[in-house]
Amino acid sequence: MLGSIDIIKSVYEGLNIYRKNFPTEHRQILDPLTTMIKLAILGYKPQGTKLAIDNNKIYFQEPSFTQGLLRWAYGNKRYELHHLLNPIIKAVKRCDLTNPSIRSIFTLAINGLERLKSSYNNNSSVVIHSLDLYTTIISNVLANDKEENRIKNNSLIYTVQDDDEIQNNISIFSNLWLDEEINLVAKMLHQIETTKNDAKTYLDAINTILLMKEDRANVLIAELSDRL
Known about the structure:
Helix content is about 65%, strand content about 5%. It contains nine helices and two strands, in the order ααββααααααα. It has helices at about 5-20, 30-40, 65-75, 85-95, 100-120, 125-140, 145-160, 180-195, 200-225; strands at about 50-55, 55-60. Strands 1-2 form a two-stranded antiparallel ribbon. α5 (about 100-120) crosses α8 (about 180-195). The model is unreliable at about 1-5, about 70-75 and about 160-170 (pLDDT under 50).
């Protein structure tokens, strides 16, 4: 894996390309915790699954003969993955890492990012470096018991944060998830690990919860837009 400076440089290059090709109105506002749970689920998806981000939601595109055609038809680009940067930063800054359920979800999110990385491995070094950065940010936060990791991670977070981080949307999702719901999702993810035969049942249940949260998040985003 490249060093932090190399990764940051590559991410900035990718972000600049993204900004040139996608106007501000096409950027997505993603709930941080929902994003982390989506990444955790990605670890259980088939190898080659990719992400599409639209209407402030993350969608899974599982490998198939039509995956490339569908991504072209819907205008999905690999640079969409830069939408993940802000919610990941917000998640590690605002989620309570003393909560074992949060730590479990974050750990599984790393697995999801590694699986996603393999889906793009032959496509773009910028994308790979971006995914390396996201993994580094989460990993360092989980290992924050060491002073050097805290310093390193804070440096990464405040160096790479996008301009959107200072906008009013930073706190609109603060009450989206209840502790009981977070614990429930973490328990179901744990059950997938322990009862492989029932994995689809638990994944379907988690996805139902996520759909509800994404719909609620879009209401909050619309309310924010009306106030601006």
